[in-house]
Amino acid sequence: MSSSSQPSIHVEGISKCYRIFERPQDRLLQGLWMGRKNFYREFWALNGIDFSVGQGEVVGIIGRNGSGKSTLLQIISGTLAPTTGQVSTRGRVSGLLELGAGFNPEFTGRENVFLSAALLGLSSQETEARFAEIAAFADIGDFLDQPLKFYSSGMLVRLGFALQTVLEPSVLVVDEALAVGDARFQKKCYDYISGFRKRGGTILFVTHDTGIIVQICDWAMILEQGKTLDAGEPHKIAKEYHKLLFGAPESRVEKLAANFPEAPHDDSDSVDTTPASEETPSSAQQSSAQQSSADSPSSESRRELRYGSKAVVATRIGVRDEAGSTLSVVETHQALEVFFEVEYRQDITDEVAYGFIFTNSKGLEVFGTKSGFYEDFLPPRAKGSKFECRMDLRVPLVPGSYFVSVALAPRVPNGGEEFFDFRFDAIELKVIGTPKCFTTAVVDLNAQLSHRSVDS
Questions:
Q1: Which secondary-structure segment (H or E) carries 76?
Q2: Residue 159: C-alpha distances to residues 99, 143, 182, 348, 363 (Å)
Q3: Which of 171, 158, 167 is nearest to 58 (CA)?
Q4: Is 380 in a helix, a strand, or coil?
Q5: Which helix (H) or strand (E) holds 314?
Q6: What ranges do the domains of the chain cover?
Q7: 128 has pLDDT over 80
Q8: Over the stretch 316-337, which tens digit does the pLDDT of each residue have?
Q9: Residues above pLDDT 70, as percent of the chain
Q10: CA distance 83 to 251
Q11: 343: how many CB neighbours lie within 10 A of its CB?
Q12: pLDDT value, residue 158
C-alpha cells in the first residue's frame, strides 16, 4: 500500500504461532518426549501479513478483538519475535503499546521517566533537560512523585505518551492508548500527532474508532483471524469493518477463503506467506452493481458497498425537491426529500426498521437517523409488498460532495445477519451555495447574529 520507494516500515510474511497446552503437565511431557510427540495445539495469531508504510504516512489497523492487531504492533516495535517473516524499519521506532508497559509500579512517575528514557537511549542529562516538557504534557500534578501503583489508567497513558513526545522518533506505533484519555488530553495527543506528521513522521496505530480512521489515515487495513481481510482507502475500510461486525458470519469466511485458499497448518513451524491477491469481482457482484445502478434515480455512487440478507431490499434511492423533481445537486438550506423504495422479497412476519446516513467525501458520518427514534416501522406483509421511505429536511451541509446511505433491518434482530439491506454510499449528492460559516465547518446551522447595547 505504501507510496514511498523507501518505506519507513516493511512487513514481509509475518506469522506468529503460539503453542496451547491444555493441561499443566503437558509442558513437562513435551520436554520429556523431546519433540517426538506433540502435547499442544497450534494457535496462529498472525499468518502471512505483508505491507509497507511510507515515510510520513498515517496508517490505521482495525479489527475485532482477538484478530491479531496488538500482536502485530508488538512485533513491529521489536518487543515480540515473529515465528516467520521479517520486519524492517527506518529510523527510531517509538511504541505506546500497553498501559504502563515498561514501567515499575513501585517507582514514582519521575523515577519511571528517567528509567524508561535511559532504556530508550537518552542520557540522564538529556532527560533532565526535557523533564519539564514531559511533566507539562502529562499534566498529572503532584502524582508525578507518587508510585505508579496509585495511578489511574488515564494517568498511566498520560505519562507514557508524554515520554514518547520527547524521544523524537521517526515512527510512532500506538495501540489503543488514546481510548482511555479524557477529551482534553485526546485533543493534545491528536495535535501532537498532526505536528509529528507534518514533520515527516510515520504513524501506525490500532483503533476501533472508524471516525478516527477516516479523519487522519492515508490508508487502513482490517485484520481478521490473524490475516489481512482488506486494505485500502479509509472510507472503504470503515464500511467493510461495519460489514464485518454486523454482516453474516459466512461473508467473513468467504472473503478469508478467497484471500487464503488453504488453511494454515504446518508442523514444522513454517507457514504459507504468499500475499493475498487482488480480488476480482464475481459475476454475482457485477450483477449486484448493475442492479444498484438501475435502482438509483439520482447520481449513483461508485463507492457503494452493499450487504444484507436481501429478504427486504432498498431500490430507487434518490433526492427530490418540493416540486417532486429528482436532484443530484442541491443548495445549502434547500428543502428536499430523501427517499427510497422498499420491496419484500420474502414473507415478513415482524416490523421492519429503516434509516438514513449522510457522510462526507472522507467517509465521516455527518448525520444519521433511523425510524426507531420516531416509532415508525414498516408493517409485516407478504412477499411482493412495496413501500416508500422518506426523510424531509433542509440541507444544513456546507458545499461539497456527500453520500447517502440507507438501511433496512428487523425491528428485533433474531441472530444471523442484522440487516436486510445496507447500502453504504448508495448515491452521491453535490451541495453548493454560500454559507455563513467558517470554511472548516461541516454544517451551516443557519444562525442569525445580532448585537445590542447594554450600557447603563
A1: helix 69-77
A2: 10, 10, 14, 55, 33
A3: 171
A4: coil
A5: strand 312-320
A6: 9-91+170-259, 283-432
A7: yes
A8: 999 999 999 999 999 999 999 9
A9: 84
A10: 29
A11: 17
A12: 84
Phi, psi of 373 (to 5 degrees): -65, -25
Percent share of the chain, pLDDT over 90: 48
* Count of CA atoms in the C-beta half-sphere (13 A) of 43: 12
pLDDT interval class at 285 (50, 70, 90)? very low
What residues pair up with 392 in beta bridges, in sequence order? 337
Higher pLDDT, 105 or 189: 105
Q: Give the count of beta carbons closer than 10 Å to the beta carbon of residue 283.
A: 7
Q: How far apart, in whole angstroms, are the C-alpha atoms of residue 442 and residue 358?
A: 12
Q: 157-171, pLDDT tens digit by residue?
A: 888 888 877 777 889
* Pairing mode, strands 41-53 and 335-344: unpaired
Any idea what the Cα angle at residue 411 is, between residues 410 and 415, rounded to 5°?
55
Place of cell 526535557: 130
Block residue for cell numbers 513501585? 106
Q: Which three cell numbers stand for residue 209?
A: 474508532
**Are 342 and 398 spatial neighbours (Cβ–Cβ below 8 Å)?**
no
Contact 169, 93 (CB under 8 A): yes
Question: DSSP letters along 180-206, please?
Answer: GS-HHHHHHHHHHHHHHHHTT-EEEEE
For 288, phi and psi rounded to 5 degrees?
-65, -40
| Torsion sign over Cα 123, 128, 129, 135 | positive
- Give CA separation, 393 vs 189, 329, 397, in Å: 37, 15, 11
Residue found under cell 516467520: 84
CB contact at 8 A, 237 and 269: no
Of residues 70, 23, 274, the one with CA closest to residue 176: 70
Of 3.40.50.300, 2.60.120.330, 3.40.1650.10, 3.30.365.10, the CATH number of 9-91+170-259 is 3.40.50.300
Q: If 0-12 CB within 10 Å is exposed, 13-18 middle and 19+ buried, where does residue 354 land?
A: buried
Q: What whole-number distance in Å separates Cα of residue 116 and Cα of residue 129?
A: 15
> Which residues have C-beta within 8 Å of that of residue 423, sequence separation ≥ 6?
292, 304, 305, 306, 314, 317, 405, 406, 407
Question: C-alpha cell of 447?
Answer: 444562525
Which CATH topology does 283-432 take? Coagulation Factor XIII; Chain A, domain 1 (2.70.50)
Q: Are strands 171-175 and 93-96 parallel, antiparallel or unpaired?
A: parallel
The CA angle 315-321-323, to the nearest 5 degrees, is 110
